[in-house]
């Protein structure tokens, strides 16, 4: 069996269907199998990325033996491959983090690991697929897994956050379904390359309606304003590894689908301006809301929304440099926000309340955790020796090149806000008066390990950005080359 | 005020939808020239008989051309069942036991349910076994079977379907589906490829792996829907 | 009756009822305070969208896309078959809608267990 992109979907599904049976044999297997599968997928990523980088051509896999427009296909290009590898890497670390994670293990562990693995599969599938309806299906897999995981804990607010998320999410899927239906009536196909090729035949009015439906439907997963009301609750109520998964995988999948629709499917210039405007509104509102939060996880959630606004702005500028910056920021956000969620959750776990006030002096009790959280905080606001600095710099340069000086001013202004609220937390960690609380929950070995790896990556990319920029440059080029995407997908088997 | 705003929103949404769909003429063919195969719909109508020997084109699309979607669909059901169990999970307290409904139903319902329950099961099995020949298929058949179990739940207070059995059925059926897909990969073709001979049109055994997959889907859907009903209806009461 | 007028009435009826269902569902989701009614609203929206799918795939005078002996005979006589793709898509969409509804109902049950009410205005721990 040759290694191919379908392994990303088939093997987790096989494992998920096997797990209820294996749970009868040995309960420990349930915890271990997702890790084995994810590790194998990491290996698949390395092999496939190597192949794609060597040949410079995307790997296009047809399914069920039907070539491009007739069947569904998977596209592993330098762009999608980069995102998928990032997702699998993050998922593996999050699995290590949640292995024997205390609060998860008290609950029915089997369900947690199945749902987590399906969340990963769904997000990966959204990125890999070359078919718009298939993307919808994977979107829904991700969504249903997210709803269930949001309300995984047996407390009151979990169910409420989950229901809120479900309400907004299922409205979103309705919009997306309508958009797909209208698109099908206009072009008579569901393959994204074929749709892109035939898009010029669609009347303008219809095109705009379809695009608006898509933007509404996909904007919800991508946390775009004003559709992100679900995010703070979901992030703060979900188990912490799941919060990290939302930031590292689910939102990335949402942004990817939005970008794929705007960059590849449609040829409307106005969409880019729309991205910039919505991005700015998202950024400003989220960052100011983050400043007002008293709950640490809610603050991280709002900061996550703000970062997504930032990504949307960068994509909206649309030049090669800007797209490069946006992809770099997506990479950084996945790594840094996961680190913040992981370390932050231990503080919350060990303090009396979920509030930032309760974190007073906790950094002295856990010096190493405090150190990790500080690295994350410094990196995300974009201080120089850390990886977050580079992405912010590239986006600013790209904006300045397009002489969007107002945009540069806004970004810098918002960065100050960001610095204020992150430094407030860091200051509280180190200079607050420690509360005396008896019970101390130490992180598991896996927790230490995955957080350390993330911190090392942040520092490494901060000092030597070159190790990652090559991949991101090629990914940005692939994304922008729409003609190559169409011809590559449609030429398979002809 | 809020209500007026909502009404305004509804009017706008309705107007936009009506305006959009007024551009799509009802009853008009949008498949282009069928012989030219401009659209996927036309391609499927032209090639299914020849290449797959499957009479029901919708089944051919669901299970073969777009079989990957169906795998995702089955996963959605599996996830819904798992998510439901995790959301509603509650430890049984001492002295509690499970009942499906709180009141005993009438004699009429009980006898009637007993009478038609086997017939419902047979109908469901018929629908998914003949999915590639007649309207229907795995999902429809599975839903019919689950409706039979719903009838039993309503009729009998203490009727239970063993969780063990449900788990086995849904797991094995799911594994079968994915294995058929991987079978294609191993034999050197693509995932989910129809690796068996297709037989003659309108025979019960025709269409290669398509009936095989649809039977697996039928079992899986039946088990999952029954599981969902069982979880949702489950009350815990003191004895 | 005039065939063009007849056609118009049919199309307004089909599209109108589908869009009407979507609007009714949307109204229920936005206005109703009871969680179960909101879930019902979501299902009604789904039903409307599914109806639109089927309506779009329909071809006037078309038969079901099944090549049974009768079907082959009809095709040989020149009868068109309706577009099979929307029907296949709607099958997937229905199943997904079912999954979402099941999860939604379970969340309603959970909320009811905690709050002993399913009215949204009594459940407000988080900001809505």
Structural class label of chain B: mainly alpha
| Number of contiguous helices of chain B | 8
Structural class of chain A: mainly alpha
How many domains is the backbone of chain B divided into? 1
> Which runs of chain B of at least 5 residues are low in confidence (pLDDT < 50)?
none
Radius of gyration of chain A: 22 Å
Query: What is the global morphology of chain B?
Result: globular
What does this molecule look like?
The complex is a heterotrimer of chains A (494), B (239) and C (128). In chain A, α8 crosses α21. Chain A has 21 helices and 2 strands. In chain A, 64% of the residues are buried. With 494 residues, chain A is mainly α. With 239 residues, chain B is mainly alpha-helical. Chain B has one domain. In chain B, α4 runs parallel beside α8 and α5 runs antiparallel to α8. Chain B starts with a helix and ends with a strand. In chain C, α1 runs antiparallel to α2 and α2 runs antiparallel to α4. Chain C is 72% helix and 0% strand. The longest helix of chain C is centred in the last third of the chain and has 32 residues. Chain C is an all-alpha fold and 128 residues long. Classes of the chains: A mainly alpha (494), B mainly alpha (239), C mainly alpha (128). Chains A and B meet through α1, α5, α6, α7 and α9 of A and α1, α2, α4 and α7 of B.
């Amino acid at each position: 069996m040759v290694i191919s992109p379908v392994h990303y979907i088939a093997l987790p599904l096989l494992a998920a269907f096997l797990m209820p049976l294996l749970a009868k044999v040995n309960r420990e297997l349930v915890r271990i199998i997702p890790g084995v599968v994810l590790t194998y997928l990491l290996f698949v990523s390395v092999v496939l990325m190597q192949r794609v980088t060597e040949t410079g051509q995307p790997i296009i896999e047809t399914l069920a033996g039907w070539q491009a427009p007739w069947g569904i296909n998977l596209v592993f290009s330098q762009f999608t491959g980069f995102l998928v590898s990032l997702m699998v890497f993050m998922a593996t670390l999050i699995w290590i983090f949640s292995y024997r994670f205390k609060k998860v293990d008290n609950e029915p562990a089997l369900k947690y690991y199945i749902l987590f693995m399906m969340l990963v599969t769904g997000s990966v599938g959204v990125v890999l697929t070359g078919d718009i309806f298939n993307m919808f299906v994977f979107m829904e897999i991700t969504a249903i897994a997210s709803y269930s995981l949001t309300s995984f804990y047996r407390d009151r607010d979990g169910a409420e956050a989950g229901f809120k998320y479900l309400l907004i999410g299922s409205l979103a899927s309705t919009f997306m379904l309508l958009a797909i239906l209208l698109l099908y009536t206009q072009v008579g196909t569901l393959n994204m390359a074929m749709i892109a090729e035939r898009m010029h035949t669609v009347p303008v009015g219809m095109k705009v309606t379809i695009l608006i439906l898509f933007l509404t439907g996909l904007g919800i997963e991508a946390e775009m304003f004003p559709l992100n009301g679900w995010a703070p609750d979901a992030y703060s109520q979900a188990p912490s590894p799941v919060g990290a998964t939302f930031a590292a995988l689910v939102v990335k999948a949402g942004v990817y689908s939005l970008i794929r629709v705007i960059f590849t499917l449609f040829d409307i210039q106005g969409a880019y301006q729309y991205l910039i405007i919505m991005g700015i509104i998202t950024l400003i509102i989220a960052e100011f809301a983050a400043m007002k939060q008293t709950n640490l996880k809610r603050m991280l959630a709002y900061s996550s929304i703000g970062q997504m606004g930032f990504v949307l702005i960068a994509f909206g500028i649309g030049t090669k440099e800007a797209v490069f910056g946006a992809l770099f920021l997506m990479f950084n956000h996945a790594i840094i926000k996961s680190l913040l969620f992981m370390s932050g959750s231990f503080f919350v776990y060990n303090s009396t309340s979920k509030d930032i006030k309760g974190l007073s002096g906790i950094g002295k009790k856990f010096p190493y955790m405090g150190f990790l959280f500080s690295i994350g905080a410094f990196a995300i606001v974009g201080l120089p020796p850390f990886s977050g600095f580079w992405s912010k710099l590239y986006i600013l340069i790209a904006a300045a090149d397009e002489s969007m000086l107002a945009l540069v001013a806004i970004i810098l202004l918002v960065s100050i806000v960001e610095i204020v609220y992150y430094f407030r937390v860091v200051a509280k960690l180190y200079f607050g008066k420690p509360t005396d609380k008896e019970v101390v929950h130490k992180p598991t070995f896996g927790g230490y390990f995955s957080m350390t790896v993330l911190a090392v990556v942040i520092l490494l990319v901060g000092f030597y950005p070159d190790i990652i920029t090559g991949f991101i440059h090629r990914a940005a080029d692939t994304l922008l080359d729409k003609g190559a995407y169409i011809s590559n997908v449609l030429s398979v088997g002809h | 005020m809020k209500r007026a705003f909502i009404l305004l929103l509804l009017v706008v949404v309705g107007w936009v939808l009506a305006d959009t769909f007024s551009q799509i003429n009802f009853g008009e063919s949008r498949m282009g020239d069928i012989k030219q195969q401009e659209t996927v719909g036309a391609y499927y109508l032209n090639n299914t008989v020849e290449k797959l020997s499957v009479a029901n084109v919708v089944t051919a699309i669901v299970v073969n051309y777009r079989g990957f979607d169906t795998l995702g669909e089955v996963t959605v059901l599996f996830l819904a069942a798992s998510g439901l169990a995790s959301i509603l999970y509650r430890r049984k307290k001492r002295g509690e036991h499970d009942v499906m409904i709180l009141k005993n139903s009438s004699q009429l319902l009980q006898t009637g349910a007993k009478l038609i329950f086997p017939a419902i099961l047979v109908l469901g099995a018929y629908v998914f076994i003949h999915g590639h020949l007649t309207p229907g298929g795995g999902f429809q058949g599975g839903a019919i079977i689950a409706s039979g179990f719903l009838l039993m739940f309503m009729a009998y207070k203490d009727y239970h379907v063993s969780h063990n059995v449900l788990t086995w059925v849904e797991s094995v059926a799911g594994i079968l589906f994915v294995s058929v897909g991987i079978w294609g990969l191993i034999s050197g073709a693509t995932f989910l490829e129809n690796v068996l001979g297709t037989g003659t049109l309108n025979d019960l055994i025709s269409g290669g792996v398509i009936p095989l997959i649809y039977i697996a889907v039928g079992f899986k859907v039946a088990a999952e829907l029954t599981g969902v009903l069982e979880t949702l209806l489950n009350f815990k009461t003191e004895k | 009756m005039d065939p063009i007028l007849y056609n118009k009435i049919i199309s307004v009826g089909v599209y109108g009822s589908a869009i009407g269902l979507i609007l009714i569902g949307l109204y229920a989701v936005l206005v109703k305070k009871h969680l179960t009614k909101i879930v019902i609203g979501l299902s009604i929206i789904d039903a409307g969208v599914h109806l639109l799918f089927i309506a779009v795939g329909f071809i006037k005078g078309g038969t079901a896309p099944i090549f049974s002996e009768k079907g082959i005979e009809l095709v040989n006589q020149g009868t068109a078959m309706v577009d099979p793709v929307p029907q296949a898509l709607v099958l997937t969409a229905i199943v997904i809608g079912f999954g979402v509804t099941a999860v939604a109902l379970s969340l309603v049950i959970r909320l009811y267990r905690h709050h002993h009410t399913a009215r949204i205005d009594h459940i407000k721990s988080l900001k809505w």
